[in-house]
Amino acid sequence: MFIGDWLGRREKLSPHKVALIDTIGGREITYRAWFRQMNRTAHFLAAELGVVKGDRVAVLASNSVEYLDLWFALGVLGGIMQNLNWRLAVPEMERVLLDAEPVALVYSGEFGEQVNALRGRLPSVKHFVSLDAPAAADDLAFSRREAYPDTPTPSVELAWDDPWVLCYTGGTTGLPKGAVLTHGSMAANSINTVMSWGVTPDDVVPLISPLFHTGGLNVFTLPLVHVGGTTVVTKGWNTGQMFDLIAEHTITLFFAVPTMFIMMQEHPRWATADFSGLKYVINGGAPCPLPVFEKWWAKGVPFKTGYGLTEAGPNTFWLPEEEIRRKPGAVGYPLFHVDVTVVDPITEQPCAADQIGELLIRGPHVCAGYWRNPGATAATFRPTIADPSGPAWLHTGDLACCDSDGCYRIVGRSKDMIISGGENIYPAEVESAMHGHPAVVAAAFFGVPDARWGEVGRAAVVLKPGTRLTGEDLLTYLRDRLAHYKVPKSVVFVDALPITAAGKVDKVELVRMYG
After folding, report:
1. How wide is the angle at C-alpha 512 spanned by C-alphas 506 and 515, nearest 5°?
2. Residue 409: inside a domain, yes or no?
3. pTM for the whole thing?
4. Assign residue 103 a region: left if phi > 0, alpha if psi is -120 to 50, beta otherwise?
């Protein structure tokens, strides 16, 4: 089946519909024009980079139409996109690139320094391709695609379980895991979203989440292609621009993380902004304070909470408009082709109504496991202990409960994870980096509340006898080894870390003492 031809199929159905409003290049692109542009990209990838089915191509770039072209071109060729998180430090990027072994690294100019730092350390990469400003004289220019025809490339036989994207998630220990998003899982997420969220061809949605996140790819971008809607492409979040987009492009819906919503509500334009064109707005990535909900409701906007994770779509639930205020903060009911359950974290027996347990998910939207990581795959995608011969479930590690109406609410995270501004931060990774400093004998990382970011990280550090270290010295050390958002925002020096009876660091006591 030639199932990767999303733009080819949509172009035949609605050729003159505006597919993309490019705020970066100042242009509108119809589905026909986008399809032809994507074809040139596919020819370029095949002819100049030698990309064939199964090859990985890494992309280190900010949002752009060209990024989208690469994604869909790899889809028709059977190639696999590795969408790199540009917030990672160079050593972190190197680890995930060595894991995926891409044949090419495509980058935008603002990341030239990182690309040059990676040169010579990636044996699988045969080509470096610049989307704009080259980082080295002999890098290929992406603009060379203009010399290629805008007709379709030869058909490639694909199956639903063929990989399309490797989206790396943060790991609690060691190497981050590459969730294998297949053509089938991404299509199923799109179908669930269109069928359950009421997305229509008339919808106009801004692409504000980075394309290295599953949210940038799958919350609305792919479903909009499926249904023939319009995506407004932005380089990233800009609060003032968001007000412009709502006013100028008749934005009908969007999703963002709590920090972004708080920025909007603190902006001078909030009081006079006209939101009457919005069908609904979805909070995702982290819990949102109730006052944020209430301010949107006061503006007449249905504002609700979503839930998802890279391994499952990410779209999983929907809360009908009539229940938004009755069940504030609830994520709602499973989407059309999604099964969920809540089980006791120990016995994995199903929980009763309103009993808190671990959320499990299954359905065709669930990814195909983790790239080259059978151990992590087997641990995460498996039957329950209570029903070992039953179906496999995605064990999310998130705590949830389901009320007597069948409505779900996410109540916490069983994984030792902090969410700051919508970004997942795993303490074990930060603690490992802190322990690398020669003056540190023991260290722990934990979250503390923050009005803007929801949570921020704080480090508790025990120094080796006879050594001296300031908090700023430690933070400078960590900035060279971790993505900026993972670096603690503050440091406290302590004589000893509190320990539980089991001999583990007592994070609850740490928060009580130093939170």
Report:
1. 105
2. no
3. 0.84
4. alpha
CA distance 150 to 308: 37
Domain range for 169: 6-14+30-181
Domain end among 119, 150, 181:
181
Per the CB < 8 A criterion, the answer to whether 1 and 157 are in contact is: yes
CATH code for the domain of 152: 3.40.50.12780
Residue 169 included in any domain: yes
Place of tokens 């409960």: 401
Instruction: Name the domain boundary from 131, 163, 181.
Output: 181
Per-residue pLDDT tens digits of the chain, which is 515 residues long: 568 899 999 999 999 999 999 999 999 999 999 999 999 999 999 999 999 999 999 999 999 999 999 999 999 999 999 999 998 889 989 999 999 999 999 999 999 999 999 999 999 999 999 999 999 999 999 999 999 999 999 989 999 999 999 999 864 345 689 999 999 999 999 999 999 999 999 999 999 999 999 999 999 999 999 999 999 999 989 999 999 999 987 899 999 987 788 889 989 999 999 999 999 999 987 667 777 888 999 999 999 999 999 999 999 999 999 999 999 889 999 999 999 999 998 899 999 999 988 999 999 999 999 999 999 999 999 999 999 999 999 999 888 999 999 999 987 666 667 888 888 787 777 887 888 898 998 888 999 999 888 899 999 999 988 999 999 999 999 999 999 999 999 999 999 988 764 456 788 888 889 87
**Does 201 fall in a domain?**
no
Token digits of residue 281:
């707005």
Q: Number of folded domains in the chain?
A: 2
Could you tell me which residues come within 8 angstroms of residue 339 by beta carbon, excluding any fewer than 6 positions away? Answer: 361, 362, 363
- Give the Cα separation of 130 and 121 in Å (integer): 18
Which CATH number covers residue 502?
A: 3.30.300.30
Structure tokens at 456: 């921020």
Residue 361 lies in a domain: no
